[in-house]
Amino acid sequence: MDAQLDDEALENTLAESLADLVATDVAPADLVPGAKTVSEDEFVEVVGGALEAVGGTLLFKMCVENEGEAQHVAAASVGDGGNRQFLLLTLPTNGGALKVETTSKSTNPVAGIAAAYAGLMDAFRAAA
């Protein structure tokens, strides 16, 4: 993989690595009658596996309501220094497809927090 992947290549790589994880770990509620909601632990497991596949780092995770739908949201980074890119991974709490996008393309309000959070963590590490 190139040190600096373009947004689309990064999203596609993550989406491919997630396909098997999501299919086996998180059942879409609309396809499986009576499926349970997706727990935070299940979400973290799927996101962790995907990030491991591309050498990414989880920055933070939270559960928010966006456009009237509760969803798990994780922000992550891939690369470092000037080559660092930020990702947003979202999954409805009632199951469904895991969405992976770069924060630069995302319309999710949480996307704007990722780079600021990473900068804050960098500052804390430098001060420690």
Folded structure, characterized:
With 128 residues, the chain is an alpha+beta fold. Helix content is 40%, strand content 26%. Strands 1-2-3-4 form a four-stranded antiparallel sheet, sandwiched between helices.
Task: Tell me what portion of residues adopts beta-strand conformation.
Answer: 25-35%
**Class per helix and strand makeup:** alpha+beta
What proportion of the residues is helical, as a percent range?
A: 25-40%
Tell the overall outline. Answer: globular
Largest sheet strand order:
1-2-3-4
Mean pLDDT: 78
Low-confidence segments: 20-34
Distance between the termini: 32 Å
Number of helices: 3
* Rg: 15 Å
The largest pleated sheet is described as: 4 strands, antiparallel
Number of strands: 4
Order of H and E elements: HHEEEEH
Give a brief rundown of this model:
This protein has 128 residues and is an alpha+beta fold.
Keywords:
about 130 residues; 4-stranded antiparallel sheet
Topology of this structure?
Elements: H1 7-25, H2 40-54, E1 56-66, E2 69-78, E3 85-92, E4 99-102, H3 111-127
Antiparallel strand pairs: 1-2, 2-3, 3-4
Helix pairs in contact: 1-2
